[in-house]
Amino acid sequence: MSSLLRVNPITCEAHGLCAELFPERISLDDWGYPIVDPEPVTPELEEHARRAVEACPTLALALLRAGDRSPSGKT
Amino acid sequence: MSATAVAPRRRSVPDPHELPRLLAGAGVGQGPVPLEEHVERHGVLPKEISRREAARLIDLVEASGLRGRGGAGFPTGRKLRAVAERGHRAVVVANGSEGEPASAKDKVLLRRVPHLVLDGAALASATVGAAEAFIVVGEGAERERLAIEDAVAERERRRLDGVAFRVVTVPDRFVAGEETALVNFLNGGPAKPTFTPPRPFERGVGGLPTLVQNVETLAHLALVARYGPAWFRGLGTEDQPGTALVTLDGAVGRPGVYEIPVGLPLRDLVERAGGVSAPISAFLVGGYFGAWIGVQNAVDLTLSNTGLAAAGASLGAGTIIALPTGTCGVVETARVARYLAGESARQCGPCLHGLDAIATAVEHLAARKKQRRGGSEDLPRWTAQVKGRGACRHPDGAARLVESALTVFADELARHARGTCTGDGRPLLRLPEARR
């Protein structure tokens, strides 16, 4: 079963460790904030993903099973 | 089986093809429709409804196809059901904050037919099991707050409702009306979006399941409950049934708020408003989160999400602005891009930094300045990069507006590159005074 990476954009402070540890799925934008590839994290990559999650100094990165990523919005 | 959820005491069902619905009996420049007149027109709603009636009302709202009128267009029935199914005491929030400076339709509704909004809030509360309903208005909306407070007092004297209304004002910020921002504010925090989950229907105000609905949506709900889904579908399109309030501004004879059947051709709306008052180069459809559409593509469009999709736009909260040829679309876009950058809640990096960079680049294009770094060549990448990367959709909306401007005003951008501009320098799009 695959998982999904999700960044909390409010807590993220652009330390950039995640992109260094998991370049297969995470790159940085022009301001140093992570852009996460929406492709699910396959089991072979899960160890890398987990390391990136653990390295985040602000705990902004999470690895979700069968992720529910519905956006919030105006009514 | 009855076609309606509740059976109010009234004389007859209005013609399903007749306009206006929401604004029936509410004249321009008149005060709010008083309770007696409102009841005379639409009948009294039952104070309490049974569980079965509540379930029936949700079915009817789903069958009506009513969608949220705050901009996102989420199916109202599904939202009601999500809160009701929590099986817990809930809270209702009627969102009349209308943070977009170009939109006036929610204010018009609150000012002219406050009882229809309160009917909807009361019904929604009865349906999801809420003892408390917050009616939210913007800080600057003094007349609207008074109209709704008076209406609440009228109803309290008559003990009309089984729910307690609380009228609340929120800061006049663009993002304050986003539903997680409202919930955060009502919980004593800043009026800024939060990262979900939990979403408001799971855990919202006071930790209770919370139904946040735009005030126009609630007003429609109050009519669907009385007259049924088939009546509601008597106007509008298959996908987006019913009428909608739109705010029409810019170079038209009579700018203002109009109630239209969804799917009305844009040219018909302009005609209702007395036609154009100057030659038009483009329309801004969907407000400051919307898209520019060149006039040659706009005239045949119909005002529904399906009708507007071909032009890369959607109806949003129903704000439409006609841009005259004497006003520069690039300059106007730069003004709004700067405003939206300033309205960022400043919580998420891509929004805080991205919208500022985007606004600066558009300002340079507008000012006909050659940028050493971060000019127009970066804009498409930046607008693509910020989408979907905030806790709310603020960066997405701002990016969409700028992207549409780059396409629609390509000729004007070419003129700017040669050092000329068609604009007369007078600003058109409404923005509040700078706050920072």
A few lines on this structure:
The complex is a heterodimer of chains A (75) and B (436). Helix content of chain A is 20%, strand content 21%.
Relevant terms:
heterodimer, A: alpha+beta, Alpha-Beta Plaits, two-stranded antiparallel ribbon, two-stranded antiparallel sheet, 21% strand, disordered C terminus, B: 436 residues, alpha/beta, four-stranded parallel sheet, 16 helices
Order of helices and strands of chain A: EHEEHE
**Approximate strand percentage of chain A:** 15-25%
Largest sheet: spatial strand order of chain B: 6-5-9-7-8
Structural class assignment of chain B: alpha/beta
Instruction: Tell me the series of helices and strands of chain B, N- to C-terminal.
Output: HHHEHHEHEHEHEEHEEHHEHHHHH
> Terminal Cα separation of chain B, in Å?
59 Å
Describe this structure in words.
The complex is a heterodimer of chains A (75) and B (436). Chain A is α+β, with helices and mostly antiparallel strands and 75 residues long. Chain A has one domain: Alpha-Beta Plaits (2-Layer Sandwich), CATH 3.30.70.20. Chain A is built from two helices and four strands. In chain A, the strands form two sheets. Chain A has a two-stranded antiparallel ribbon with strand order 1-4. In chain A, strands 2-3 form a two-stranded antiparallel sheet. The N and C termini of chain A lie far apart (34 Å). The C terminus of chain A is likely disordered. Chain B is of the alpha/beta class. Chain B contains 16 helices and nine strands. In chain B, the strands form two sheets. Chain B has a five-stranded mixed beta sheet. In chain B, strands 3-2-1-4 form a four-stranded parallel beta sheet, sandwiched between helices. In chain B, a hairpin with a 5-residue loop joins strand 7 and strand 8. In chain B, helix 13 runs parallel beside helix 15 and helix 14 runs antiparallel to helix 15. The longest helix of chain B is centred in the middle third of the chain and has 18 residues. The termini of chain B are far apart. At the A-B interface, loops of A face strand 4, helix 13 and helix 14 of B.
